[in-house]
Amino acid sequence: xxxxxxxxxxxxxxxxxxxxxxxxxxxxxxxxxxxxxxxxxxxxxxxxxxxxxxxxxxxxxxxxxxxxxxxxxxxxxxxxxxxxxxxxxxxxxxxxxxxxxxxxxxxxxxxxxxxxxxxxxxxxxxxxxxxxxxxxxxxxxxxxxxxxxxxxxxxxxxxxxxxxxxxxxxxxxxx
Length: 175
Hints:
The chain is an alpha+beta fold. It has a single domain, classed as CATH 3.30.1330.200. The protein has 2 helices and 10 strands, in the order E-E-E-E-E-H-E-H-E-E-E-E. Helix 1 packs across helix 2.
């Protein structure tokens, strides 16, 4: 007698039945009513692209403005300058053919009090690089929740393009 087949281990239950989690310097793209989420945004920026006609979207958790700030430039999701074209490719791969809109979140100055006068605010640099990359790609910015001194979590609902932003300091906001 043979043993019954063993079912593969199930991932930990997500807050939404089709929730995809994006880590730092990572991305995901989906359709079918999925929610793409990332947590722990400080100076990093979440870039959410959405195609309303196709009901598909993509989200990246960008760590740095551009490749000049890292020896590891191979990860396109890590940088604002390369993440935008990557997300466009992913939305198109999923069948998105309509116009895209963008929403961005993050870019906080988490430790502004520790910066020397005139010091680098990486959050502001990430936001600026993201806006430049979106403009270069011809993608309009529909909404943003950036800056400040607080962390955020982001949930992109790809069915309708809603972006839910949660913060301990500011509560919940829908973009």
